[in-house]
Amino acid sequence: MLTSRAKYALRATLTLAEHHADRGWTSAGDIAESADVPKKFLEAILTQLRDQGLVESRRGPAGGHRLIADPATVSVADVIRSIDGPLAMTPCASATAFRACDDCADIETCRLRFVMRAARDAAAAVLEQCSLGDILARAAASMRRAHELVPPLGL
């Protein structure tokens, strides 16, 4: 299950993605308000995202935070991994942090590993192919469609 921290990180990075084109800095307070993320959690999340190379931060009155890369190149998987670690439900199914499970007698004969790898591969296929830019584009298209469905006033 996705942790609250990862959900907050996704909301925060989407807010930063919305402001990426202007290359300006967004304050933690503005991110917290826009992304509906508790500010006390946001500071630690932004630090973790910075340490993982997704966000850059600048102190001072003109400071704030911004995405380092173009939102089209930052996948949902990148954000989740930076906060929660591997996507796999078990360490033996991880593509990025593989190891035998602590309670595994023999990784080669484990009867659960194939299904855990299949679940990891399916989730990764979706999350790695969806970028922050894709989410913003989909939301914008959805808003346009909703706007087109609203009848003009006076009819």
Characterization of the model:
By secondary structure, this protein is mainly alpha-helical. Helices cover 52% and strands 5% of the residues. It contains 6 helices and 2 strands; from the N terminus they run H-H-H-E-E-H-H-H. The protein has helices spanning 4-18, 28-35, 39-51, 76-84, 113-129, 132-149; strands at 55-58, 64-67. Strands 1-2 form a two-stranded antiparallel sheet. The longest helix has 18 residues, at 132-149. It is globular and about 65 Å long.
Poorly predicted runs: none
Strands, total number: 2
Order of helices and strands: HHHEEHHH
Percent helix range: 40-55%
**C-alpha geometry:** globular
Number of helices: 6
Mean pLDDT equals 90
Termini separation = 47 Å
Question: TL;DR?
Answer:
With 155 residues, this protein is mainly alpha-helical. The chain has helices spanning 4-18, 28-35, 39-51, 76-84, 113-129, 132-149, and strands spanning 55-58, 64-67.
Features:
52% helix; 155 residues; 2 strands; mainly alpha; two-stranded antiparallel ribbon
Strand and helix map with partners:
Elements: H1 4-18, H2 28-35, H3 39-51, E1 55-58, E2 64-67, H4 76-84, H5 113-129, H6 132-149
Antiparallel strand pairs: 1-2
